[in-house]
Amino acid sequence: MSTVHLAVHLSVARVAGARRPRGVGSGAVHPSRRTVLGAGAVLAPALALPALPASAAARPDARPTAAARTPLADPFTLGVASGDPAPDGFVAWTRLATEPLAADGAGGMASRRFPVRWEVAQDAGFRHVVRRGTVSVGPESGHAVHVELTGLRAGREYWYRFALGPHRSPVGRAVTAPAPWALPRELRMAFASCSNYPVGFFTAYRHLADEQPDLVLHLGDYQYEGAANPAHLRPHAGPETTTLAGYRQRLAQYKTDPDLQAAHAAAPWLVVWDDHEVDNNYAAGVPEKPAEQGGFLERRAAAYRAYYENMPLRRTSVPRGPGLQLFRRVTWGRLASFHMLDTRQYRSDQAQGDGWKERGGGYDDPARTLTGRAQERWLLDGFARSHAHWDVLGQQVFFGGRRNAQGARETVSMDSWDGYPASRERIQRGWVDAGVRNPVVLTGDVHTHWAGDLYLDYDAQDAPIGSELVTTSITSGGNGYDEPSGSHPWFYDNPNLKFWNSLRGYVSTTITPDALTADFRCVPAVTTPGADVFTRRSYVIEDRVRGLQQVADTPLAGAGPGIATRRARPSDAQIVEDTIREETGS
Fold it and tell me: Quick check: pTM over 0.85?
């Protein structure tokens, strides 16, 4: 069932020079793009192919014999993507689909194999192609293409594309990671999560693409499993996803969105899932609804397989039944290590039946784990071995302490790290004991922007040991609203929390050896396309200085022309109710 891969082990010509490629945060230790373009490249004769069609609008051959070999309709309706960059390469992805919403999940493709050509160049015009080849894909992989490239130069921009017969895909931009010993001047990284297609337009993805980051982290809930509902703004196709055909169809529907396609084409992605890629708030082999326990592992296997087919993942993530190796580590020279976590596949079941509950029910049992023991050991070992300026955890659920003391009973989220305090303590003590230079946790899931500092003891809060940056959703939760002060009703009982906002958007960061700057980007509405974007608040974390430092604040009312308030701030009680509803799905 695994997708056909092609790894290319070739080297390009060495050239002199030490200027940084414009727009790539790779430092001054690599030749400039201009230098490399002038030098040419070494190609393998075995991989040499005729150039792709010169015209992007080339007409398909309409002869019956040609139609038997190649689809008449465009098979690249799902766009392109790259991911998991390394110093010598990346994964280039596409999936063939002439009818993306076909109910059988086959995307309108015939049940046969197709030879897909691919090219990688040092320029967007493909005047200097450095790699080209052909890979055969078939129905066993949903006609997905994963090309694992190696032998490229470190810290470089590259462009890639695919072709089938006369059809040519859009062009994607990728960036290779810096060499392991390099210390880049900067890395521009954005992170996002929670894109629910029916409730709004993916405008935030378009703005993210326009920023041309070097790297994008997607922290989960890439798609949602719910059934079609004609009342929605953009209804899902098909019933609730439970089968391979259903998950393939659903992911294809999301990937037809032009704003999402633009974000994928703009930069390489590091992807991890949360719950909605399978089932709301599932825990390992336990579904949300006990009545659905029978057959759940088969459902999970179908979801994992479709996820792999539709993401730019390496062959190490080819699923095996209901299991898929997703946690992994990507380094950006000596500047940053990204520890990408999976907090769904191996976790203990939520205590107290999930939801926001009082502490109890064995929630603090040391045997309970959010990551699973193997992933925990892998992460702690990564801390011990790290020489990076910044160790960044890309993960899903709220990490820092956060309690709701507004009612008669104090409650915490049993789905978040608050519901697994022993697991969180082991990981936090792990980075403290290892002397990690600058630990930063990135989070999605909760459909609102948050920022806060991390502590070993959330009751005493003596001295911060790191910081957490939480991105809001791309669309999930609808238009949202702004609180001018940037505070939440829970702040009084949680002094570690520094910022909250309920608009939709993403977070853009600039990481240098001296500091990490985070801009909380927002759009005022998602129910109308084309909304403007603005930076709601900015924070800096300085090298070796624990704690967030606010450097800018722009409430929605002062965000400038074209940024209009769409929903007034509700009462504190309503904010709390909205917060819990968005996080629990109830």
Answer: yes
Q: At 300, which helix (H) or strand (E)?
A: helix 296-309
**Contact of 215 with 85, CB cutoff 8 Å:** yes
What is residue 540's predicted lDDT score, i.e. its pLDDT?
A: 98
Q: Cβ-count burial of 403 within 10 angstroms (0-12 exposed, 13-18 middle, 19+ buried)?
A: middle
pLDDT tens digits for 53-86?
Answer: 333 333 333 443 343 378 999 999 999 999 999 9
Q: What's 324's DSSP letter?
A: -
If you compute the radius of gyration of the chain from its CA atoms, what whole number of angstroms results? 23
Contact between residue 236 and residue 227 where contact means Cβ atoms under 8 Å apart:
yes
Tokens 């029978």 locate to 294
Alpha helices (H) along 408-535: 421-434
For 24, the token pair is: 């790539």
Phi, psi of 163 (to 5 degrees): -150, 145
What is the rounded CA–CA span in Å between residue 503 and residue 556? 9
Interaxial angle between packed helices 258-266 and 203-210, expressed in degrees from 0 to 180 and rounded to the nearest 10: 30
pLDDT value for 5:
40
Residue matched to tokens 């991105």: 471
Q: Please provide the distance, in angstroms rounded to a whole number, between the alpha carbons at the two ends of the chain.
A: 36
State the pLDDT at residue 26: 39
Closest by CA to 536, choosing from 517, 519, 561, is: 519
CB-count exposure of residue 536 (10 Å: 0-12, 13-18, 19+): buried
Q: Which two tokens stand for residue 200?
A: 């709004």
CA pair distance 458, 244, nearest whole angstrom = 43
Tokens of 208: 């993210």
Per-residue CA distances from 356 to 267, 405, 443 (Å) = 37, 11, 18
Q: Is the separation of the CB atoms in 307 and 279 below 8 Å?
A: no
For 431, phi then psi, to 5°, come to -75, -30
* Distance between CA atoms of residues 179 and 382, nearest Å: 18
* Residue 466 CB burial class (10 angstroms; 0-12, 13-18, ≥19): buried
Instruction: Kindly give the parts of the chain with pLDDT less than 70.
Output: 1-68, 558-567, 586
How far, CA to CA in Å, does 185 sit from each of 21, 84, 178, 428? 11, 21, 11, 28
Residues in the chain: 586
Q: Please, which residues bridge with residue 519 across strands?
A: 508, 538
